[in-house]
């Protein structure tokens, strides 16, 4: 009886996971820092909500645009490289066969076997073989601009909603510690979950995200307090 062995890997998550984690982290840190900075200047609750709401919308759109543009640039580069490779295959397939075989020799195959592997892979899918083994471009890891933009914008808005909700509901005299505490707990949870989904260690990831978030919020609150005192 034949059995099919299947393995499940996390590499297919890299594109959306990176954008999602970056967006959520940015949403929590930037909005919490904004709320803390404005609150430290002794602003009213209305001013806090206006500033936080504007920060949420602006941040989500900025993240979406930035991710789309940057990832689209990567996609354009991949497309150009594939077109170049396609032209080289059409112009000189013998040289491309030698090039592919040399790659396999460099990975440890003997020359005869490398030549045979290159020949069979090129007969099956020459462009795919060169894209994967020469250029490092695969379907799993290829750039997806729209997916990255939507994941980043959505996660930013979700992350920003927490400090904004606290700013709307918590009494003003408890606002600073509550926003800071909730943001730090959320950042630690985000670091742990993203590491778990990606198959990495949760502790170092949680500590790393929390440290930088705490630093950003402390600096912003300090600036807000100085500005409020000066005014």
Q: What letter string, H or E per element, gives the SSE order?
A: HHHHHHH
Number of domains: 1
How many strands, what sense, and barrel or not for the largest sheet?
A: none
- Number of beta-strand segments: 0
Number of helices: 7
Distance between the termini: 81 Å
What overall geometry do the principal axes of the alpha carbons give? Answer: elongated
Beta fraction: under 5%
| Mean model confidence by pLDDT | 83
Low-confidence stretches: 1-13
Strand-pairing-aware structural class: mainly alpha
Q: What Rg do the Cα atoms give?
A: 25 Å
Oligomer: single chain
Fraction of residues in helices?
over 70%
Give descriptors for this structure.
disordered N terminus; 231 residues; mainly alpha; 7 helices
Can you offer a commentary on this structure?
The chain has one domain (14-230). Mean pLDDT is 83; it is low at 1-13. The relative contact order is 0.19. The protein has 231 residues and is mostly helical. The chain is built from 7 helices and no strands. It is elongated, with a radius of gyration of 25 Å.
